[in-house]
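G., the chain you wanted modeled:
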Amino acid sequence: MKFKIYTSVIALAFSVFGINAQKINIQKSTLEWIGKKIGGQHNGKIQLNSGEIKLANNKIESGSFYIDMNTITCTDLKDDGYNQKLVGHLKSDDFFGVDKYPTANFKVTKSTSFKNGKATLTGNLTIKGITQKISFEVTKIKNVFTANLDIDRSKYNVRYGSNSFFDSLGDAAIDDIFKLNIKLITNK
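Predicted structure as tokens:
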């Protein structure tokens, strides 16, 4: 009985103060990556494990997102052999070390209010056990949140083919910046 009373009080407090916690629909949400190198690029997808956003007073008050690094795929290579070779390399210690670091995450630390559907989100991104503060613009249309991030992999000790760590790579260099295009859909 006490649990029901406490739950009701918490729900009432959330509604009075305009706090709205929304779970991310991981089946409908998408994370697409793009990695570039001299003379080309590769792209693919990765999946969320879970996520939640708390909205209040027209801003994101808090949020956390967990990414399953084991779900990395490549969508541009049609040859199965080359595709699996690239995906295996991305999962290896040369890149994301998925055996040791199976999850990456982002936790919101602050946000501006939405104006014309846009806000600036700041938080901590953790990849390979290394946490860095990042800020980016997020767009909200109803229950859909989108963002395009440029992430510097060298800050997360993702070294393979990086001019930040190795000299004389020439045309074997891979850009330190990779793009992550995010579309999060919440359950209303």
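The longest strand covers residues 40-56.

Shout if anything looks off.
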